[in-house]
Amino acid sequence: MPRVKASEITIGEARWLTKAQAMAWVNVKTEEVWNNLWKPYLNLYGNGGKVGVYDKRQIDRLMEQRIEIKAQF
Hints:
By secondary structure, this protein is mostly helical. The chain has a three-stranded antiparallel β-sheet with strand order 1-3-2. A hairpin with a 7-residue loop joins strand 2 and strand 3.
């Protein structure tokens, strides 16, 4: 019986994102911008104590709020 390799999950399909994935998702290039504009507003969840992950839904909600605020000005 042939084995089928599971397809990898893309960032758009993932529920939880590492810091690098989260920075790529919101198109942030530097740590300074991430630490000042995004990190204070997001919850960091433990992943077995090794690497923290961010909830992509929370990131999406924050992006939507920022778009709405920007549209008001």
